[in-house]
Design brief:
The complex is a heterotrimer of chains A (about 200), B (about 150) and C (about 170).
Chain A (H helix, E strand, L loop, with lengths): L10 H9 L3 H23 L2 H17 L10 H23 L4 H8 L2 H4 L13 H13 L3 H12 L4 H8 L3 H25 L2
Helix pairs in contact in A: 1-2, 2-3, 2-4, 2-8, 3-4, 7-10, 8-10, 9-10
Chain B lengths: L1 H20 L9 E11 L9 E2 L2 H9 L6 E12 L4 E5 L4 E7 L4 E8 L2 E9 L5 E8 L3 E9 L2
Antiparallel strand pairs in B: 1-3, 1-9, 2-3, 4-5, 5-6, 6-7, 8-9
Chain C lengths: L2 H11 L5 H13 L1 H17 L12 H15 L11 H29 L9 E5 L5 E5 L4 E5 L21
Antiparallel strand pairs in C: 2-3
Helix pairs in contact in C: 1-3, 2-3
The chains are: A mainly alpha (about 200), B alpha+beta (about 150), C mainly alpha (about 170).
């Protein structure tokens, strides 16, 4: 039987080999997707060390659960969901240890997003892609964990409201409120950042 | 050896008793819940149309740390939920609750006041237990949402 | 614009509204300038985020990153003992007495429970997520009651004082 050429093999072939215990095939999958998994963890945790730890934990769990991967989704999607769940668990643990700021509580329940003026300028206008990327990254960092998580799951993972509600163990109404707040806050932050540099 | 066989026979008798005698939940995991909206007040003179709460419930509420003397049942809803099924119930103009029937006698209870999530509780709620959520109402009165498992 | 309208507009924007409601919102959008402006803001924000993934690289070399994963995989792999060649009768007999002992204990337990019925109140594990920071949870074992008391002021009217028009229609 021809030896598997790992670097040119498709994910499906690597997964099949890994499911039979081939750690070299799994290592190729890790190399291929590690940046994306790390980036997802960093988007949610906003901490480099935590993102590294959680992404590695996701890979270990992925190996342990490889037999359960049936190919219903792509391997990348499957492993991304594992890291998302790990990040959500970690955020819950941190929330229990952390005191929420009063401002955070008001933002959660006070409806401040309804009073924000509508931002009429388009932040993508006249901005280089790299600069826009930096601004979005800064703006995301200013959101609370809950608001950022909803935004990441909806906009980057393209999850529906009910999927997000299930993942975050909250109601659909809460998902909608948080998403709305996150979007309005982000628009406002991007407009402020744009104005700083005008 | 003989002792082991005797004990094994006793085990099967025990298993039979368990399966016939002690199943509280219906075999498919569905359950029926009752939700009450209750008003608590110290004012003895109230609208005669108000329905006093069930005496046993009123007694429990009085024995708790609450200060109110009189309790009235304002609204009652019964809902049957399959396992993992969720249902939203309007208890009053401003008060909506959401119930999810979970496995192992667990329920998830969410209370919304004017569309805002006020609290979420996930806990075991076997038959005979009550989950009471309450808060202040106008004129030093109080409102309660009382939840119990009927079957 | 009410909160409900804003959230409905968002749901329309996210294509999660049923068709009939979506048509109503589309029609409202066409004639309401505020709604149109908010819709545009949502669209611009999405456009800004589209394709944005932090161009992040794992801050460790491939080999180092993998070495930690591999170590953990090997550490958590279950050890396998060599299989014993035992006859079926012997293996059954080995379990018979302990299984019988467990069965006896189970029977005693069941009889005890049936005798004392509902008088035993077990602690009820509660997992409460309180959006209200001033709220508290109180457990009364003797009454079989868990109480969650919210600290919202009466004026906030989380639930109304009784009057006929505040209660749902029968």
């Amino acid at each position: 039987m021809a030896e598997l050429a790992y670097s040119s093999a498709e994910d499906a072939a690597l997964v099949r080999a890994a499911q039979k215990g081939d750690t070299d095939a799994f290592e190729e999958l890790v190399a291929r997707h590690r940046d994306k998994i790390y980036a997802r963890a960093f988007s949610m945790m906003r901490n480099e060390d935590e993102a590294v730890d959680l992404s590695q934990e996701a890979w270990v769990k992925g190996w342990q659960r490889l037999a359960q991967f049936q190919g219903d989704s792509s391997f990348a999607t499957w492993i991304t969901r594992i890291v998302i769940n790990l990040c959500l668990d970690e955020l819950r643990k941190q929330k229990r240890r952390r005191t929420e700021s009063i401002e955070g509580m008001d933002e959660e329940t006070g409806g401040v997003e309804r009073q924000m003026p509508v931002v009429t300028t388009n932040p993508t206008e006249r901005l280089e892609r790299g600069e826009l990327r930096q601004r979005i990254d800064r703006a995301l960092g200013q959101l609370s964990h809950e608001h950022r998580t909803v935004l990441v799951l909806h906009e980057f993972e393209e999850m529906e409201y009910k999927e997000i509600a299930k993942a975050m163990d909250c109601s659909i109404g809460t998902v909608m409120s948080r998403l709305f707040y996150a979007r309005r806050k982000l628009a406002s932050l991007l407009a402020d950042l744009k104005n700083e540099n005008d | 050896m003989r002792l082991g066989l005797i004990c094994l026979c006793l085990f099967f008798v025990a298993a039979l008793m368990l399966s016939t005698g002690s199943a509280r939940a219906q075999s498919d995991g569905s359950a029926t819940f009752e939700a009450l909206l209750v008003w608590g007040t110290n004012d003895a003179k109230t609208d005669p149309k108000f329905k006093p709460a069930d005496p046993a419930l009123a007694e429990k509420l009085k024995k708790s740390p609450f200060k109110w003397e009189h309790y009235f049942e304002m609204h009652r809803e019964n809902v049957k939920l399959k396992l993992n099924e969720e249902q939203t119930i309007k208890m009053s103009r401003n008060c909506v609750i959401s119930l999810t029937n979970l496995k192992d006698n667990q329920i998830k209870f969410e209370l919304f006041g004017k569309g805002t999530l006020a609290n979420t509780v996930t806990q075991s709620l076997p038959k005979g237990q009550l989950l009471v959520t309450g808060g202040d109402a106008e004129n030093s009165t109080a409102w309660f949402v009382v939840l119990r498992r009927v079957e | 614009m009410t909160e409900e309208q804003q959230l409905k507009l968002q749901t329309f924007f996210d294509k999660e509204l049923p068709e009939k409601e979506a048509r109503e919102i589309a029609s409202w959008l066409a004639r309401d300038a505020d709604a149109t402006a908010l819709h545009a803001e949502l669209r611009n924000t999405r456009q800004a985020l589209k394709g944005f993934e932090p161009e992040l690289k794992v801050p460790e070399s491939r080999e180092f990153y993998w070495s930690k994963i591999k170590r953990e995989i090997e550490r958590s792999a279950p050890a396998r003992a060599p299989a014993e060649q035992v006859s079926l009768f012997t293996s059954l007999r080995r379990f018979l007495l302990p299984l019988g002992a467990v069965a006896t204990l189970a029977l005693v337990g069941i009889i005890t429970l049936h005798q004392f019925g509902g008088g035993v109140v077990r602690p009820v594990p509660v997992n409460a997520i309180l959006a209200d920071a001033g709220a508290f949870t109180y457990r009364d074992e003797s009454q079989g009651m868990t109480v969650v008391w919210l600290s919202y002021p009466a004026e906030k009217k989380l639930a109304d004082s009784p009057s006929p028009d505040t209660l749902p229609a029968k």
